[in-house]
User: Fold TetR family transcriptional regulator from Sinorhizobium terangae.
Amino acid sequence: MKFEGRMAKRRHEMMEENRAKLITAARKAFAEKGYAGASMDELTADVGLTRGALYHNFGDKRGLLAAVVNQIDGEMASRAKEIGARAENDWQGLLAEGIAYIEMALDPEVQRVVLLDGPAVLGDPSKWPSQSSCLHATRLTVERLLEAEVFKPVDAEAAARLLSGAALNAALWVAASDNPKEVLPKAIDAFRSMASGLLAAER
Assistant:
């Protein structure tokens, strides 16, 4: 039984290793060639695996993109959260997080994989698991701001959804524009103005 247990553990570890290898290779391929241009045969060969390993772990190419998008979007949220945590209070932190997320639309990997190919292939980004996690964190911050009477008395979920949606849609707009660097400050300025409308008084 111990031997079988060890074998099962090793199989699980190998599956995790293969999964990680495929995600790493896919991130590079999708960022450099785009979803449509990335070859699954080349990708699997580059990491010494078969297409069978890809199908076993992700179902298909779309499933692999979903895993890559989830990883990058999760990293974006963590980065934005770190930036927000350096702010002097919850309100400034909330604002800094949203702005940081929008600014990441200038990152070539984020732009192509998450903000352009992601929605085109995977559909509505607000339904992605990584966005649900962001929404939950935003709601907790909004609830604290409501309790402290920093925000006007609004519904916490409604405010969190509108703030998260505004940051996401601003990032999508920047990424899809002909001149992202020119559009970015406009998007940030509008996001800041919209978010400030929730304040109970000028701060």
